[in-house]
Design brief:
ATPase binding; flat; 8% strand; 13 strands; 826 residues; single chain; V-ATPase_116kDa_su; alpha+beta; five-stranded antiparallel beta sheet
Length: 826
């Protein structure tokens, strides 16, 4: 049922809605909840600012900005909001009004701005007081140590000088008496500045001070053990306390300017120890008060955040939906009486009852006296393409639409891609050991889809999660083809019975047979291996020729089959759109040309397998063109093969002009007849009728250019003829990648794992096992998976879909709340 639903897109209708103005908002809201109507923009010439509901959109944008501000502030505070459980229809809760929400958001923003401003101001004051406290502590230690040193020196001098007391020694000035007796105008007053400077700038700060004062300064520094909050930036910075001594006003001016340049914060520092102790007490008291105020402010801010966070998600969804509703209302045309709005849009035919029911409910809930008028419009405009997919089929449909969205109701390759894409991938990736690893990863994604669907994943993980069911089928098919190739990490297993071959020397087993790599094993029974490739082929002398021949011929058979499927689908397209020309002059000659050459090659491959003969098919196909009458000799597979090849060659040659000439000539004849019939109709009617007919003709008929149609058909014919050869050769990538995957797997197994296993040391074996696991995961499970995926993608896009798939449609994008994202808030 799903495949049939996917074969052709949903039937669409262009509908017109005449909505009363009082119920317009609720109508669009109900339709957005339903999500089955794609509105057309009926005001394409108007800018966003000239539309009717521009102010409402602007209001919603402003509310969305405030909500983003709230979210950023909550995240900055390191809190996780306790979201209120979402209602099924939060948009239509009558207790939530947009005007009330706008007023509430404005008040909350003003309150939060005020709280932040006061908190920043208090935090800055707290940081400044903290730095002042550190300056008083560290600089006080400077002066205290200096006083203690001075006391010690004066005491030593007092011991040597008679009649000197300790008090006199302490009070004795630092400068010599003769220096104090100089003229007052020539005396230099010694001053100092204390403060803090970032530790990263301390060296430069000291160097600039020394140069600016020419060495006439004395700098003392003390590091602060813990980083402190900088008052200017609010960030934690490692700083040091400094005290710089200088002489003179000019030096002070220079020091002040240097402090400002380096962002050093200067703080007052009294020389009097008593004053220092008093200042420390005041700072500690103020810090305690400030901390209590900050704690109270933080508690109030947390309460505000909790109140906002409890409703934040619901408010965000509501504003996002309101903005989308008003944006959609701007696409509607307003009647001249301004009492109703006219909307046009596309909807699936099957959704008409649901839409009409939503319109009735909207009119009832909005207390409108008039119901919305719903009518279907007839148009020749191409409808959008819409497929109703689920979580399983959606990924395969996305693979198809990455090439191009299908034309309306043309055959959709998506339903065939569900099987053919993972199968062609598995043909290139066939190894049931690697398939099991891939299956485990796919099962993890599938079984954890509910949990992963709620998380924000990275780009690569998001891509893998979206294609989890594609990976699941790829893994299952890889296990299947791995059993056919009989490869488990390149190791064969005799799971499906015994082999049909044995060693010519009965004294040896098949594994130890010395003739296995020289003359080969002998076949002792006619029954083949039950399923897949006989395990004795692996490691034998003829392994590569056998597997190469098998996989190459199998690739051609699969390619011809898929291309024939594409041509057959073009017939169903032509039949559905009632195009007899495409059936007779496109489908039939294409089918004949492809099968007369490459279908015949596929037949020879199957016949050769059935007969067990050894003809050279390369020779047969080459001389089918070069010497069709030549006797095939030992390359003949059946009686009369030469005559059959001549007939097939003639059919292929006739098919080329059959595709090229008839269709443009018939289209030209039909156009001439249509123009003559129109001319007779104009002669038989009135002037008014002729005018109407001409107007209709201008809209309904496109200009016919025979030369353009002929060139287009010529390009199409050449493309198909050359593509038949190149596309068949392109399918040989199935053989090439399968061979590369098998050989890489064998190399890693033999040269890494088996090489390490030759040693008895368990450490070497463990290292070999780890290396084997990493190269298997990195190269075979990641790189080879991606390579096979891309090649399977190319085979579907180019070799398969170009036979019937136009891909020039446009996707159905209904207005739906469930598709709105955070980007719609911008």
């Amino acid at each position: 049922m799903v495949a049939m639903d996917l074969f052709r897109s949903e039937e669409m209708s262009l509908v017109q809605l005449i909505i009363p103005a009082e119920s317009a908002h609720d109508t669009v809201t109900y339709l957005a909840e339903l999500g089955l109507l794609q509105f057309k923009d009926l005001n394409p010439d108007k800018s966003p600012f000239q539309r009717t509901y521009a102010n409402q959109v602007k209001r919603c944008g402003e509310m969305a900005r405030k909500l983003r501000y709230f979210h950023d502030q909550i995240a900055k505070a390191g809190q996780t909001p306790s979201y209120r459980p979402m209602l099924d229809r939060p948009m239509l809760d009558k207790d939530i009004d947009l005007d009330e929400l706008e007023s509430k958001l404005t008040d909350l923003e003003a309150e939060l701005l005020e709280i932040n401003a006061n908190t920043d101001k208090l935090q800055r004051t707290h940081s400044e007081l903290t730095e002042l406290q550190l300056v008083l502590e560290k600089a006080g230690a400077f002066f205290s140590s200096a006083r203690n040193a001075a006391t010690t020196v004066q005491q030593q001098r007092a011991d040597t000088e008679n009649g000197s007391s300790i008090e006199e020694a302490i009070d004795r000035p630092l400068l010599q008496e003769q220096e104090m007796q100089t003229e007052p105008s020539k005396q230099a007053r010694l001053g100092f500045i204390a403060g803090v400077v970032p530790k990263a700038k301390a060296a430069s700060f000291e160097r600039i001070l020394f140069r600016a004062t020419r060495g006439n300064m004395f700098l003392k520094q003390a590091p602060i053990e813990e980083p402190v909050i900088d008052p200017a930036t609010g960030e934690k910075v490692e700083k040091i306390v400094f005290v710089v001594f200088f002489a003179g006003e000019r030096a002070k001016t220079k020091v002040v300017k240097i402090c400002e340049a380096f962002g050093a914060n200067r703080y007052p520092f009294p020389e009097d120890p008593n004053r220092q102790w008093q200042m420390k007490s005041e700072v500690e008291s103020r810090l305690g008060e400030l901390q209590n105020t900050l704690d109270a402010g933080m508690h109030h801010r947390d309460n505000v955040f909790n109140n906002i966070g409890y409703n934040l998600e619901q408010w965000t969804v509501m504003v996002r939906r309101e903005k989308a509703v008003y944006h959609t209302l701007n696409m509607l045309s307003i009647d001249v009486t301004r009492k109703c709005l006219v909307a046009e849009g596309w909807c699936p035919v099957s959704a008409k009852p649901k839409i009409q029911d939503a319109l009735q409910r909207a009119a009832y809930d909005s207390n409108s006296q008039v119901n919305t008028i719903f009518q279907v419009l007839h148009t020749k405009e191409s409808p959008p393409t819409y497929f109703e997919t689920n979580k399983f089929t959606n990924a395969f449909q996305e693979i198809v639409e990455a090439y191009g969205v299908g034309r309306y109701q043309e055959a959709n390759p998506g339903c065939f891609t569900i099987v053919t894409f993972p199968f062609l991938f598995a043909v290139m990736f066939g190894d049931w050991g690697h398939g099991i690893c891939l299956l485990l990863g796919a099962l993890y994604l599938v079984l954890s889809e509910k949990r992963l669907g709620k998380q924000k994943l990275g780009d690569i993980m998001e891509m893998a999660y979206g294609g989890r069911y594609v990976i699941l089928l790829m893994a299952i098919f890889s296990i299947y083809t791995g059993f056919i190739y009989n490869e488990f990490f390149s190791v064969p297993f005799g799971i499906f019975g015994g082999t049909a071959y044995r060693c010519p020397d009965p004294a040896y087993s098949n594994d130890a047979c010395p003739m296995a790599s020289t003359s080969g094993l002998e076949k002792y029974r006619s029954d083949p291996y039950e399923f897949g490739v006989d395990p004795v082929w692996h490691g034998s002398r003829s392994e590569l020729p056998f597997t190469n021949s098998l996989k190459m011929k199998m690739s051609i058979l699969l390619g011809i089959s898929q291309m024939n499927l594409g041509i057959v689908l073009s017939y169903f397209n032509a039949r559905y759109f009632r195009s007899a020309l495409d059936v007779w002059y496109q489908f039939i000659p294409q089918l004949l040309f492809l099968n007369a050459l490459f279908g015949y090659l596929s037949f020879l491959i199957v016949l050769k397998w059935c007969q067990g003969s050894k003809p050279d098919l390369y020779h047969v196909m080459i001389y089918m063109f070069l010497s069709p009458m030549e006797d095939l000799g030992e390359n003949q597979l059946f009686m009369g093969q030469t005559y059959v090849q001549i007939v097939l060659l003639v059919v292929a040659m006739v098919a080329v002009p059959w595709m090229l000439f008839p269709k443009p000539l018939i289209l030209r004849k039909q156009h001439i007849q249509k123009m003559q019939g129109r001319a007779y109709g104009v002669l038989g009617g009135s002037d008014t009728e002729s005018t109407d007919l001409e107007v209709d003709g201008e809209h309904e008929e496109e200009e016919f250019e025979f030369g353009e149609v002929l060139v287009h058909q010529m390009i199409h014919t050449i493309e198909f003829v050359l593509g038949a050869v190149s596309n068949t050769a392109s399918y040989l990538r199935l053989w090439a990648l399968s061979l590369a995957h098998a050989q890489l797997s064998a190399v890693f197994y033999d040269r890494v794992l088996m090489f390490a296993w030759e040693y008895s040391n368990p450490v070497i074996r463990l290292i070999g096992l780890v290396v084997f696991a990493f190269v298997t995961f990195g190269v075979l499970l990641l790189m080879e998976t991606l390579s096979a995926f891309l090649h399977a993608l190319r085979l579907h896009w180019v070799e398969f879909q170009n036979k019937f798939y136009q891909g020039d449609g446009y996707k159905f994008h209904p207005f739906a709340f469930k598709t709105l994202t955070e980007e719609d808030d911008m």
